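User: Okay, second chain of the day. Same drill as before: sequence in, structure tokens out.
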Amino acid sequence: MAHKSAAFGLKWRSSPTDIRNHYAKRSAQYDKEVSDEIGYVAPRKAAETLATWIKNKDARILDAGAGTGLVGKCLQQLGYNNLDALDICPEMIEIAERKGVYKNMYVDILGGPNPIQLPSNQYDAVVCVGVIEQPGPAALDELIRITKHNGIIVFTWQKIQMKSISNRNCLKEPS
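Assistant: Same drill. Structure tokens below.
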């Protein structure tokens, strides 16, 4: 039996096209599904975690896998105002844009065959909620590339998958 992600039936390690199509179909109802039906708290928890590390409200922050902008909205409520969004699905990005929390919006594939089209060392912090499970640990390399030296990356990861990243050098303290 194939492992299902928490994304309502999306097969584990689906192709970028399948992921994009899956979220395009669900985009209009996504916020209602995750907040009303399952009480999704990860966006708020990730924003609060980032706030413990990043005190500067003008810090440049990327919401990687922004979807409809749930994390961005939480960050805005905490006073952050220099937010960009990246997502694989244009339909999700359109909904996020309507929330008015992001300065720049990007559609790209995190963990795809090519690097995302963002410059290296660009962000003070990156937050990535409910995303890395699909492209896998290699997506962390891209997040590290676009984060400034001594920047912060906050991400969620299903407990069942922690073993696959626990020995990665990218999770160790810089020397």
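The radius of gyration is 15 Å.

User: Thanks, on to the next one.
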